[in-house]
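Incident log, structure service

09:12 report received: a user says their structure output differs between two submissions of the same chain.
09:20 pulled the input from the user's history:
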Amino acid sequence: MLRVRFTAEDFARIRFAPRPAPLQELHAALTTAVVRRGGPPLFAPWRGRILRSLPATAGPLADLVPEGRPPSFLDVIGDTMADGFEQIRATSPGLVRSELERVYGAVPVPRWIRGLHAGDETAWHTLHRAQQAAFETVLAPVWSVVQDLHREEFTRYALTVAEHGVAATLTGLAPGSRLHEGVWEWPGAAPDRDVRLDGRGLVLLPTFHHPAGPLLQDTPGHPAVLTYPAGAGLPPAVGGPVVSTEALAALLGRTRLEVLGLLAEPHTTTALARALQVSNATASSHAAALRSAGMATTTRTGRSVTHRRTALGTLVAGARPP
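09:34 re-ran on a clean worker, output below:
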């Protein structure tokens, strides 16, 4: 169980990350793919594709989690990969050494990790190159989707806080959790942890690649960062063909799948109806269904309504074999 202990000052310092953090999302994805091999069945083909496609230059990242316990200095919130790495590189040498010693213990240490422990620049370059290679393989193809999903989650969080308050919002982020006497309890989170914020505050960061509970960064002197799973997760649609056209048609309906294809270009309701040979009301209904699933957007200009495919809709549409 994860227990996060708040003071009154901490409640005033809860904030939601305004943008996704590339390194945090990458670490969440790699944790799902390599370290914690759980998750829904649809994660299995995604995991296989990721493990087959990771280049050798990304291999050193596996050395940092010899027993599934990554060093805390890797968990940073930066708007870009470069910004994130700069924050990692700015970690005090003492914290780098103590975290590597904690992670490895009696486990044999690879040579480049010994270099990292000693502050060797070549070792830091090895880490930077590995992170960049992994990002280009795992996240770069879907980063626009992650950004779209983050904006939606940000908006949902803000509306929930405004309507129901912070306490209800926190427990809503973690089904099964509860907030009692200033302690947020998240059952089932592993390993068992008890974290005192002591006025540092908490940053909430959604992840779309880690379905199995929270990832908590607790660095002394900094706000704690809670990376929590948001929605059903992104991986099932990532990285090439996942399901057939027939399977997608069974899920969405053949007409809605056709609408999704048409919306590769903006269409008014009338243009959609004409292309589908249905009434305007029927075309509008199909567009509304895709919009509610996050696969389309609708904008109104005067009396004209225009529908467009979102990044998620493009990803789903592009997940079919040719």
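09:41 both user submissions now match this output. Likely a transient worker issue. Closing.
09:42 reviewer note: DSSP finds 15 helices and eleven strands in the chain. Residues 236-242 have pLDDT under 50 and may be disordered.
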